[in-house]
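To the team - S-adenosyl-L-homocysteine complex, inputs and output below.
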Amino acid sequence: MTAAAGRLAVVGLGPGAESLVTPEAAAALADAGALYGYGPYLDRVPARPGQRKIASDNREERSRAEAALTAAAAGGRVALVSGGDPGVFAMAAAVCEAVEAGPAAFRQVDIVVVPGITAMLAVAARVGAPLGHDFCAINLSDNLKPWELVEARLDAAAGAGFVIALYNPVSRARPWQLGAAFERLRRLLPADTPVVFGRAVSRADERIEIVRLAEAGAGRADMATLVVVGSAETRLVERPGLTPLVYTPRSAGGRTR
Ligand code: SAH
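Output:
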């Protein structure tokens, strides 16, 4: 028998607002003896007496996952936090990678993934229903994959009529990729395709912008922005005195039921 392994909860904090943290996530956070995560995400979690917070840098996902697994394998009750949903371009996959490659003790840890509201859902909800028909999500970061693969996926997704949610559109180290993505998409989609820039949604500094693809530029986005690029079917409905609705009809290819 090995010593009793502990538990690792991989917890999604949602897009920012406390009201968008699920009760299950709040319970998992309250239950933990140690919290691991990227500093700004840990700052969102109210401090509790007797609970330790171990902050790490943004780019240290794998070593953070290993540290949390090591603490849990030693019997701890550990929570590892992610923004949004932990399974969307976030810590849950880093934990699975660490378990697959790591020591046998990691496989004994009781791992629970607690879902959260991912950024594309929070952004979509602000403007109407841009994800009302088929859509996909692409991480625009080329840290873990070659840029050529991003380009091929952009072409395939736009060519197949998917609405595209772009996570990680820009960073200081990746200033040009979003502009290059818009250039490609302009070749495949109508100039008036709606594009939504949703920044820091549900936080104090939230900003939503809706522009036509023809006017979409990388300068409108930063690291806290999620970009939704419509399909050829996505429409903008003007409403006097109110913000427009952006939506993608549920039907396509001639079906209207
Ligand atoms: N796991 C997270 C995504 C991590 S990748 C989730 O499910 O939301 C980080 C990217 O998510 C950011 O670059 C941005 O594109 C997006 N993002 C996260 N929080 C956001 C928010 N509150 N508003 C807009 N975009 C957000």
